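re the bet — no i am not wrong, look at it urself. input seq straight from the record:
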Amino acid sequence: MKILAIESSCDETACAIVEDGVNVLSNIVATQIAEHRLYGGVVPEIASRMHAECIYQVTQEALTAANCALSDIDAIAVTYAPGLIGALLVGISFAKGLAMSSGKPLIPVHHIAGHIAANYISHPELEPPYLCLVVSGGHSHIVEVLDRTRYRVVGRTHDDAAGECFDKVARTLGYEYPGGKYIDSAAKIGDPKAYNFPHPRVDGCEYDFSFSGLKTAVINLVHNASQKGETLVREDVAASFQRTVCEIVVGKTMAAAEALGYKTIGLAGGVSANSGVRGALQKACDKRGFKLYMPELKYCGDNAAMIGCQGYYDYLAGKRADSSLNGIATLSLEKISE
């Protein structure tokens, strides 16, 4: 079964052709980073307009790369939630047009479910149930993956997402947007124990995250040093910050796994490309005898292959949409499991 998948939830316009869920025939991504870098972050209006400008071309490239015509496609999958509403609507409208004109079924896919599904592409042997840490620019979750289409969120952020925190700290340190990769590179040469940053906790929510206080602590350190005329080694700040994030997300994931009885762990989302997070989680799993699954780096960020993969399993579960499908800016994974 071949699925044409479309992803446009933020600042990547992507289309992929995926066969039987895990065989990626093509995966085309048009990034908008250069444009948004001018403003230090994603500008929703610009993102929407750029999606509209290139979605047809990206789709044509995906079909050509897969050596397919639209008539060879069995279904159309599209990200419908969560994300920037204008950006989502571009992809949804285009997907609905393709489905209507070709007579193909339309499959609505949850963006976070897609990130989790990226692991099935890299590791077809992975079978639920397992516990998955999802860390990205807009989301930070600890998720029980009950099966390929049902989830229970056991931990979530109460303010900033981990990826958002990375970008804001990077900007404070003078790095370009998106800052995550610059923090990661700097952390490799900096001293991770140079600074002790706080590990914020949320009372009554053992597995939930809060990154706002950590972000503020780094910003205050940098601003106070500037006001006093002191020079900070930004590689040391970056390394100490990344260490702290790793301790927080890995610590809570391990605590949840032990309490809930999981010995299989997954990692997903854009921040899953961070070498510090990957290394710390691998070390923690090895120490406990847990099995860890992580997507290949090319499937960590937003892409359509992961949407095609999840779309396949959603199709098998009977999920369909009609022409009334709309975008939803915020939607919990648990809502789609009801």
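see?? The chain has two domains: 2-116+299-337, 128-295. told u. also The chain has a mean pLDDT of 95. so pay up
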